[in-house]
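One record is set out below.
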Amino acid sequence: MFDSCSAYQILFLSHCVPNPPDKGERIRSHHEVRGLAERFGVHVVCFARSEEEAAGAAGLEKWCASVHVERLSPSRALARGAVRFALGGCLTTAYFDSAAVRRRIAELRRRTNLAATVVYSSSMAPYAPPDLPLLVDLVDVDSEKWLQYGRERSPGFPYRWEGRRLRRLEVAAAERARCTLLTTEREAAVFRDFAPRAHVRAMENGVDLEYFDPAASPRLPELEGRRFVAFLGAMNYYPNTEAVCRFAVEIYPELRRRDPKLEFFVVGRDPAGEVQRLSGREGITVTGAVPDVRPYVAAARAVVAPIRIARGIQNKALEALAMGKPALVSPAVCAAFGDPLPPGLRACHSAADFIQALEEPPLDPSVIRDGVRRRFDWDRNLSVLAGELDAAVARR
């Protein structure tokens, strides 16, 4: 609960509404806001791309000093961004450009004694007041993702242009900030290579072990007795759609030949057209959005994440491990976790790797959960952000 007598008031700028914690970008921002609100007065300024997203902000009001949600029209934002991109600007920042948000921040500056700004994602860096200590959580190296798109997608040149433009913004924000955070040491090392003057630290995600508890998970009768592997995630996001379609075409048929009863469930909101068409293939079910992913994880033999473009730690893998389930993932996903890998996480490159992993005796679920508990605790991991913020306001 927000205490109006909190010693310091913090501005938290986010490109998404940090609630509910049901999607990758919202999970990390949600826990950051909750953790900071235990010690500071937090003023959230964020964007919502739908009325449903905007409604999620109501859940923040019990913790925060204030919450401002700017409703964004994706079509108008994309059109604005495309024009500025064509003129040499950065699509990412143009997409989230808003005079109303600048006015809201200026109003907060006038009536509130703000001590520092926390920026969540590079797209919000241009809004940070220049006279306040700044901490930036880039989450992942987004510029590197765009450059990877430039190598993977065709035509590649627009993605490469955006990658280079966004990289300049990332470097400028990081060099101005007291500290720049990334989700893994691997991402931090990539960033240090091109921003050597920035103070960069890794802050891993956590996972809610009470919520993702197999003993507390509801069950769906229609899943009982079925043998399947599951992919979880937003299905309009290119790295996910590419991974699912490739798995369905190149890997799953081999698994099905080995085990004719094995099914493949694609669980996630907003499936792209190519993902929806997979439902026509024998053994594949595309669920679309579901109210709760836990029944699918609890009933699955394993969660699969054969993602080639993997920046940061994949929450889908963490949630599977928290449920005591093996996560069969690409080498790129494993590389993000670093050494040693958590129990239950298995690198699979080919169909033969997936077959071998599925045929091996499974680990004890309690061993998998204990490994997650030791490393992915939100309170412990968020202490990195809290410590850097304490130092920033103390030096102000």
Observations:
- The first strand starts at residue 9 and ends at 14.
- The chain has two domains: 9-206+377-394, 221-375.
